[in-house]
Specification:
By secondary structure, the protein is an alpha/beta fold. It has five helices and six strands; from the N terminus they run βαββαβαβαβα. It has one domain: P-loop containing nucleotide triphosphate hydrolases (Rossmann fold, 3-Layer(aba) Sandwich). The protein has a six-stranded mixed beta sheet. Helix 3 (99-116) packs across helix 4. Bound molecules: guanosine-5'-triphosphate and magnesium ion (MG).
């Protein structure tokens, strides 16, 4: 049923977290500038903004908070999340082919965002998909590791981890899946 009072934020705020050097900043800057630099500079914190058109044709501004992955910035990241309380979606990233970066979502990044804001939706994004020549889809693996969903998908072993997440993956280098990643991020950040 359509709710005529449905609130669509004019300013959408999303925060990207995940291990260092897994391609978060290149993902964000390619979205905002339409150019993939492939450069690496360790991010501390930087906010990019971009004008977008939503599915209902209304305009919005999206703020993309790039929170660097270095452990050196752990305390400052927590401080940032304490101040920025209007995040509409958290984007937890990992690098395809780097399973440790998925485990670190489970053991580190998930807890940080749930502690900051329990009910904000989470999108898990697999980056550098070009590193898998088979072009595999890593959603099930990510769910298995992060949520403890067992292989036959019958139950979660770790209910306390929450209600789950939506998933997308891409290569910023080749752009495969890139549009779909941002469509999912925007859809998730603007849902009720
Ligand atoms: N093969 C491949 N390499 C990528 C891709 N995206 C980024 N890279 C490389 O990954 C490295 C790290 O990229 P960044 O975007 O700076 O990584 P980050 O996650 O922002 O790192 P921190 O700021 O330290 O948290 C760079 O050397 C990029 O060239 C991709 O889609 N495919
Ligand atoms: Mg960065």
């Amino acid at each position: 049923m359509t709710n005529v009072h449905k609130y669509k934020p004019r300013i959408i705020e999303v925060a990207f977290l995940g291990d260092p050097r897994i391609g978060k900043s290149n993902l964000i800057t390619t979205f905002t500038s339409n150019y993939y630099s492939g450069e690496y500079t360790a991010t501390f914190e930087y906010t990019y903004t971009s004008e977008i058109i939503l599915g209902d044709c209304s305009a919005a501004t999206i703020s993309l908070h790039d929170l660097g992955g270095s452990p050196n910035y752990d305390h400052l990241r927590v401080l940032f999340l304490n101040v920025h309380t209007k995040i509409n979606a958290f984007i937890l990233c990992f690098e395809i082919g780097n399973d440790q970066s998925i485990y670190n979502i489970k053991t580190k990044w998930w807890n940080i965002v749930k502690h900051a804001a329990k009910d904000v939706p989470i999108v898990v994004v697999g980056l550098m998909a070009d590193k898998d020549p088979e072009g595999g889809w890593y959603e099930e693996k990510a769910k298995e590791i992060i949520l403890g969903v067992d292989k036959n998908k019958k139950k979660k072993k770790n209910e306390e981890m929450g209600e789950g997440f939506s998933y997308a993956q891409c290569s910023t280098l080749t752009m495969r899946g890139f549009t779909e990643v941002f469509e999912l991020i925007i859809k998730t950040a603007t849902q009720d």
